[in-house]
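Request from the bench team (R.T.):
"We need a structural guess for the complex before ordering more S-adenosylmethionine. Sequence and SMILES attached. Just send the tokens back."

Command: build protein-S-adenosylmethionine structure.
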Amino acid sequence: MPKAELADETLAAVVAAAGLEVPDSREAWEWRLQCALPWPVYDGYRQRRDECFAAAKDANDVVRVAAAEDQFFAFAGAHPNLCRLFAAGRLGYYAAVLPKVAARLRRAPPARILDLGSFAGVTTLYLGAAFPNSQVVGVERHPGAVAVAEAARARSGLGNVSFACADFTAFDDGAFDAVVSLQAMPAYLIPWLPSERPEDYSRGAHLEAAMGLPAAPVQAVARAVAAVRRLMASGGRAVLHERAAGLPRALLFQHLLARAGLNVTDRCWADWYSVSQRDVVQSFPLIEATAVDGPVPSYEPAMTALYALAGWPDLTGLPVSCGVTFSGFHAHAAFAALPGPRDEMCLRAGLPDGRRLHGYFGVAGGNWAYVYRCDTHDERMMTVGARGITPALFRAGLDELGRLSAAGQLASCDPPLDKFRYHLGKRFKV
Ligand SMILES: C[S@@+](CC[C@H](N)C(=O)[O-])C[C@H]1O[C@@H](n2cnc3c(N)ncnc32)[C@H](O)[C@@H]1O
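Reply to R.T.: structure attached below.
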């Protein structure tokens, strides 16, 4: 996120107090990590980050994913410079999401706010500055991160903010009028619900069964959601932005909220891009919920509403010379929003794990070149840009398919990859 874009004054003040340097680009941020950290710390960071990526790819061992992430945050928290640099790498996300969270809380300013999983304290301090008449508590299980957050609080002079070092699933500090949880739950442990076709986002009615799968230790998410409910005052609210990218996980997450007695009153997709993340626009649901007593409500209408929240990306604002990549539901939405007429070719493949994958290569409305990759477990990527990028874009898409094929991942492929490559080249003159 370029410095000029830190337009939110509240966030700018928090960033200054926390001593975060706003990175100009992903490369600049990576370079700063290398230069500013002693080698063992930088190396330790890289190892733990790589383990998170490796664990995430191993669909059969989701427990490893949770453990890898916890080790990553324990290590980052234990090294104050790394902790701050990592928080600085997430500023694109804070700039996009925190104003939306504050806007929701402002509808009825809460007297007491709890921020779950507060890490370096950016969200907690932001809420403290945005709501000077509220008491704001950040709870975080790694003591190093709490110390970094506390130092930033002291520099900020915010007297209405405090931090506690605890596991929030066991935390008990009375009831809060608002509980905020931003990427603090292991929502990636929620299983994907396979769809009938790669392009499809509608799902069957077997949500309970899906959550009970032995390979899906979704109970960890259920415990986190139960903590939200338990820590909320009567009439209180929760604002949640969890890593439930893609509709099937978002649906299951809402289902978990319902089972915990949390009634969703508002939802939207909140998009962000951070230099510390993968090089794509990320989109997770931003959910506001209230506590309900009594029978668990049916969530069919809420799920339909979530699906209807298309949030179609506005393609007209795209930079002309390079492509923009969308993931998850936004990739699906961007594909659906392409203007006609479309001239496209599609490759259909079966993956060894049973997923089916479709790859679309095309030009839309005479102006937009795109590659869309989707599969029946909702891994979705859509890159779209001005027509001039067609050769580079198609080459990159074909290279990716080539790598999958070389790794024996494209068991059945229609048409065969070589044939597809040949005809694509002829048709689009690339
Ligand atoms: C992905 S970071 C998000 C931090 C912050 N909420 C934000 O939006 O930048 C998740 C943080 O939550 C903390 N966390 C996860 N589970 C926790 C738990 N049960 N109790 C306390 N902290 C937890 C982790 O240690 C980590 O610092």
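Two things stood out. The longest strand covers residues 262-272. Residues 3-308 form a domain with the Rossmann fold fold (CATH 3.40.50.150).
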